[in-house]
Each structure stands twice: as structure tokens, then as C-alpha cells.
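Researcher: I'm preparing a figure for a lab meeting and need a structural model of a single chain. I don't have an experimental structure, so a prediction will have to do for now. The sequence is pasted below. Please return the structure as C-alpha cells so I can convert it later.
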Amino acid sequence: MLTQRSSALDLLGIQVPIIQAPMAGVSSPAMAAAVSNEGGLGSLGVGAMTAKQARDAIHQFRALSSGPLNVNVFTHRPAQADPQKEAAWLQRLKPEFERTGANPPQALREIYTSFLADHDMLAMLLEEKPSIVSFHFGLPDREQIEALHRAGITLLAAATSVEEALAIEAAGIDVVVAQGYEAGGHRGLFDPDAEDSRLGTFALTRVLTQTVKIPVIAAGGIMDGQGIAAALALGASAAQLGTAFIATDESLADAGYRQTLFSDAAHHTVMTRVVSGRTARCLANAFTRWGAAVPDAAVPDYPIAYDAGKSLNAAGKAAGQTGYGAQWAGQGAPLARSMSTQALMQALKAELDQATR
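Model: Understood. Here is the structure written out cell by cell.
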């Protein structure tokens, strides 16, 4: 197992089995650089960026670190517009907008382009050649995979089930990320409308290590060196941590997000679809409470629904209300720490060393 893990770390270009999750809107080039400079794998979530914005972020990272970089893209199925459903959604949200003293937008749009249809993003990645490219919400097409591999890029993809992991392996992806139900942010379900098996991180990790031949990265609810050690003991080659980095100095999380993270809400993370149109784990806030009574069928497609969610959050913040944000966090949120990314990495490495002695 140690030989297999060492091989996986070599594949990723890292010295320690710690991966900072690519949290779109939270991870920054400075955060990713600090992680990579400490021997781990820093990541950038560019699914919400244009190709130019993503290129700029990669350049900012490279100005701070010569270490490996993971660039994460969204491979969701493109949204299906439904003007009638979207109009009904805005009408349903109208009272929440009124609480902030604002009106809802007149119409909604698909605010992100799926990597499946983003030719500019693919061209940029082939030019910039980051060490690693990872996929969330599914798989790219065969031509995209082959082009990235020809460029010498290692590929990762998230799985929430055995079936998804087997599809990832069959597609020729190099490493699978086992995303447990504890994880913060969006579920990586290939089909957002399919039944979710809701496997926890450790159960999923152990099953996948016994099922697929490619390396497995454990993700979800892991916040410290002891959690990393537990994942490694189950056969994972590395652990991916996201919520652990939200409160770092280099995080892009705003003050309201940080305040909620260190409140009782951290003990009550909930799965919700209303913020973005896809199921995601969020800190309990005004938006999740409102959404508790909303049927999934009423929510427009991702990321069209996110257009409304972002508008409501902006209106709320302008009115001094921070409870409408996409305050993603995993079930390990009560263990969050506020410090620099470098200090957190050093703490994680020390804890891991102590736990594996």
C-alpha cells in the first residue's frame, strides 16, 4: 500500500498526501500556492470563470509557486432553459427579495458554461498545461480527455458512487476522488436527478480502493491530520480538504461566511438545491431555512437557478443581511480553524505525523 501511495504522490507531484479542494469562489491563487509550497496540492476552482479569468489565476499562482497545480472544471450537462419554471421561481423568491428591499431580476440566464461546451477553456488548458486538471459533475468527452493527456496533464474526477468511479476508470482518468456525503459544496453526482446513495467518505473510500485499480483520494468531512491518517489507513492515497481552508487568511470567503462558519450553524449543515439548482451542503442560514419547504421539481436547472441565488445574496449583503450566501461547508465544519494557509498546512502535517507514528 505504501508503494502504491508513493506512486500516486509521484503522479500528483506532491510530497505529502494533502490536497486543498478546488472551491470555486473560495480558493485563491495565494491559497493554492501556499499549499503547494508546503508539499501538498493546491487547487483552483475555475468552473465559474471564463478562460481568460482562469488563465490569469494560473499566472497568479505561478508567480507565487513553482509547485503542482490542480485546475478544476465543471462538466455538468448544459442547462435546459424553461422560461415558465424560471418565472415561477422568481415569483416564489419575490418575498425574500422584498425582505432585502430589492426586486428580483426580470429573467434568469445560464451563468456558467459547462466544460463540455467550453472550447476556449480547453484551448487555454492545453496552452498553460497545469500539472493536473480535475472534473466535477461528470466526465468530459473522449476527445477532451485524450487532448489533455497528450499535453502531459494528469486527470482527476470526483465520484459519489461505485458506478461513477468505474465510469471514471473506464474513461482513462488517472485518479478518482471519492466524495463522501459529508463533503461541503456541490455533490458531484453525474445525474443530479438520480437517486443518491449518500455513501459516507470512509465507506466510499474503502469500497473504491477494493473496486478500482486507479488511486483513490478521500474527500468529505476531513479537517485535521487525524482525519487524513484515517483516510490513508483505509487505502486512500491522499485526502482532499475543503472546509478546513475556508477560514484561512488567503480564502475568498467574505466576513458573513466566516462568521457563520464559527457559529452554531456549523453544527447544522444541510443539503439544499435552492441556492444553485444542484444539491449542495451548506451552513444553515436564511436561504436553507426558506428552501426546506421547496420541492426539488420547482427549482430551475443549474446554473440558471444560481443566477437568482447570486442576485438574492447580493441584495441581502447590500442590506446588511448575510444569510443568503452560498456558504458551503462540510460536516466537519465545527473543527474549522482561522490561520494562514501555510500555518494550517504545517499543523496538518504535524498532526498527520503524530497520528501515524
